[in-house]
Fold Tripartite tricarboxylate transporter family receptor.
Amino acid sequence: MARFTITISETKLRLKHLIPATLLALVSVLSPAAHAAYPEYPIRLILPFSPGGSSDLVARAVAQKASTLLHQAIVVDNRPGAGGVVATSFVANAKPDGYTLLFAQTSHASNPSLMKRLPYDSEKGFTPIALLADHPGVLLASTKTPYNTFAEFLAYAKANPGKVKYASAGIGTWPHLTMAMLASDANLKMVHVPYAGAAPSRIDLLAGRVDVKVEAYATVSDLIRSHQLKALAVTGKEHVAALPGVPTIAESGFPGFDSSIWMAVLGPANLPPDVTQKLQAAFTAAAKEPAVVKQLADQGIYARGLPGSAVATLIHDEIIKWHKVLGAAGVQPM
């Protein structure tokens, strides 16, 4: 009996010392030091759009530089579909280890108002990492229209309600949202003509079958320079350097008007803080790299390189903004 009692006592003593040691080991596993080697293998940057557009250009330019800073490859993975929902859902459900990231764009903030049931929470479902860039749009007019300036366009649209036809790449796309916001702010009555993509809408604008359209500057710069389309106004807060005589909508009587294609990197929710910090440092530095800044500026894209906190604020504000715009335009969520 005495021997049995001693064994129990020894066991209790051993457990008494073992439990703190186990907890200490667990804490060390969960501590930032556990991710000191990150990244140990290639990172995937999921892009919700097809190759070739301005988003693809920014993603690849910044990813190339960030991979150098992280000493690990970053693979841009294009996964278009459902207005970005396919790619966004994939990242939302990915393991929060820093190896699967999302290249988010303006549609990330407008989709909550366009779709009744998203398979993720656009804010809580992600870890904001970095704001890379934004791309101003240009309000374009067919050469067959009687107006050559933004002021002349406004005067004509107000004097001819329902006569101006504006094109978009489809209901709920960024060009549609921007024109809907302008129509609301300026109290204009125009006819929306949605197309299945930017290319066919641009073709009809060139042919004069529609009157005006908003598009990212990079995709139409050649058409503006060759005088095949007229640039009436810039939709973002800043001027486009290559269009010195073209005003912003904000300075043309609509203070605060701002509609740009912003581009950011997000991770799944609950990304470890130390991993988030490493990614934020690499992506913000990459976006500010002089060679990257110039490459983007040549396409009319503004490099930003801002931290995750700026991304979180932007997404929150944009969700509210587009909800109001779509409500005013009478667009019902699908």
